[in-house]
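Budget justification note: compute hours in this period were largely spent on complex prediction jobs such as the one shown. Inputs:
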Amino acid sequence: MSALVSPSDYRDLPRLGVGASTEAGTRPSLDPVAFAAEHPGLIDFVEYGSDVDRGLDASIRGWVAQGGATTYHFLDVNLEEESDIDDHWLSGTRRAAEELGAPWICGDSGLWHFGPRDQGHGLLLPPILTRDSAEITARGVRHIRQQVGKWVLPENPPSLYFLGDLHILDYFRLVSELSEGPILLDLAHLAIFQRAIGASPTSALERVPFDSVVEIHVAGGGEVTTEDGFSYLEDDHRSVVHDDVWALAEAIIPRCPNLKAIVFECEHNPPDRVVSGFERLHRLFGAASC
Amino acid sequence: MLSDRPGRLDHGQFRELAPPHWTSVLQRVTVRMLFDPLFARRIYGPEGETLWSELELPRSYLEQIRRHDFRVWNADRLRRMRAMKGLLAEFKASSALWLAATRSQEALLSFFSSETFHRAVQSRGYLALAYGSWLELKIQSTAHVAAGALPTLRLESALALARRELREVRSGRPARHTKHLEPGEVRLRPGYRAVSVPSGTLSCLQAVEAWLFEQSLLPVMALCRDARGLEGMPLPGSTLEGFLVEPTPSLDVQLSGIPVAYARLGEVFHEARTRSEFPSIAAALNLPEVEEMVDSLLGARVMEAG
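Corresponding output:
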């Protein structure tokens, strides 16, 4: 399949607004049709997370059937490992994205699994933050874009450790430049990175490639301490968003001129607990000039 | 240093075709650290220098790893349990029969500290096949394991292998089947495996699976002294039964009973054989009609010829 997208036109992608995340077949999970009926105007679209093996579930098919806008979040390809982007994955992902009518697809960079894509291999690993790795990822992004015919937004992943000599924002700026494409910035994951390197959440704002950010994720999370006393910021998608993440949202969202979508990742919470989060994101996005 | 020997189930047919990029080598080291706290401790200790030089990675990354709080690597204490859940889904009966003898969770989770595990991760092997290989050695070296454990493992392993063959073909990496068949060569098609095991093995496997299902209804019953155990499972008989693992339309595999003679023959043809070898195969298996049997399997598209 030839490229259906050109490097210049991601700025013309449709503005989707504020959306909710869901994941294939996972229960309990937010039912977008019921949620939208109970809270009109609160979710503009749904970001559906899945893999080629699970495909689309009944819940997302119901949302699409009633005309709901959707993006596709892959959970099963290693952008940092070119041999992982095989024909089976490409055709399955293209089919899912087309059935959803997704204007773009997205997913965390690095590795979704170690070794082959198989049972027991699932483990989200951050990319090695080097130019070498950014070049591999950019090649992967371009290849998928050409084969799937949609923009591919690589996302900064969460991790408790990072290796390499680049700041994660410099890494994604480089991936964006090399792939001539947009990115997805997950603010909870960025807060975790800042915590991991011992920096304040907003101390790296000058590194954000604002023009390239087409989608932003905001997710609930909080402090966790292990049995042996190690404390870290957990990205568990709880209903309450950490102050570090709100600080990043307030600082970054208004400065992204090509921002088209904000996803509140809150799929496992009772609907009434996430209403205020959606309302706050609507206010932020509405006030932004993008 | 890790040996270059593939696992017993994975005879090297799923190996990478090209050397991995150094970033992948480093990623695999971190995977090993995340799953094996003992290995992580070795990386942080004096032995780490030697391990690192064997991996041929820049030394700066060893220093970067060591700058992280050691507790990072074991912060997710359920990681090994989740991975093991996936592995047991395919080896549930043989694992249960082995665990009935060991009664040790640590013994089960020690797979993640085994050389088999580390070799599989570092060489991009299939974890399920590595686990099957490891379990075979464990069953053989553990006292009082039920007699049905090894034959049951052979059935489960055949299914696991066939699934990986299909997966490789689907992904465009047909593994051992990348080798072009020469004229006169014959073998089983990808996703087909033949297996002969002692009679009663399938009954044993099904009985263990039924027992596991009952346990899943009330997991707390495992704490009860009078809970029904795995005693009394069917024992393997003195004769053989044959099976063919074959692909299903839904891209999984299924097990069908076949005559023992065909199963024994099929086992020989997991690797390509030439027709000139047929007389010796016929003699070894005491099957004079090898030629006719192969032709019928070719006709049924269970086998393929060059």
